[in-house]
Amino acid sequence: MSGGADFVAAQALGRGILVVGDDGGTFLFSERTLTTEAGEDFPDDPPPADASALVADNGAGVIRLSWADPLVGWRFDPGLDAWSDLDLGGELDLGPRSGAAHLVDASAEYLILFGGGEASDIVEIALVADDQGEHLVRRIDPPLDGPRRLASAAWVTREGTDAGEGALLFGGDQDDLPIARFTGDPSAAGPTLRWTGAGCQQVEIGTSAGADAELRVLCVGGLLDGAATADAALVHIPPAGPPTVEVLAAWLPVELGDPRLFSDEGAIYAQGAGRLLRVDRQDLTLSEIPTAADRAAGGHSVNLGTGVTFLLGGVTAEDQPVDRWQVFTPALPAP
Asked: N or C: which end of the chain has fewer CB within 10 A?
């Protein structure tokens, strides 16, 4: 499969990267041998990109879900090199949810679906079957303040406590909602902007993200009113109470219409437009790192859980397919 082919990719925990082409071709890239083996072709037509996801479960499998209506799912077993249909149960009358943001929890047991389509509710889909073999689906209260289609989603976590944690929804294709909505507080915050496709990452981590800390989430690039932007935003999330938003106009040195974010203990990195930018976690100073990654947009990034992230596919600034995979390795922590 060439680097620019249309495909989706996801981690298979402990195994490597599963790649599924638009023609149904299924391949597993082994993290141990660095070789690729073909599996059974995907058994159905590919679901729409804006209403589906390919994600790992905690049993080393990979699940493909589509919420284009109705909700359907499939699971690939790397040991058997085969696909099977998911048996879904619970609240299945979800309706079409194009543009819904989604996150997977740290244990890879649940996928959380936020809004999408004309829906404003939050839905939890079990990635692990229960004793009856069903993957249960249920709604979670409270709902969002709107569908927030094409919003960017990021977890907000704290060290040693569940209090003050939640999911941040940033932006969306509506221009009548504040750009930030944090599930840990019913209030939304920030100006009303149509901002889609930003890359978002929590700044404070580890001991800096304790129960009493004000956390910041940095969101960069994306499309502002449909045009690539060099703007960024800092969403401030206190231990209790509503978030606040600080918009950083023209903060980036280049317009990053489709950023991919990576991170290590010391910094957050943003790749796009053939550039690699580094943001220091301590003081948010911004610098540029020479890079061979010529991806401008598209493609996928897959973290193997070892810290290594693969950047797969996409197109260059000349709209040519990226012809190689790139590997991001985090910097070693300071002694």
From this structure: C
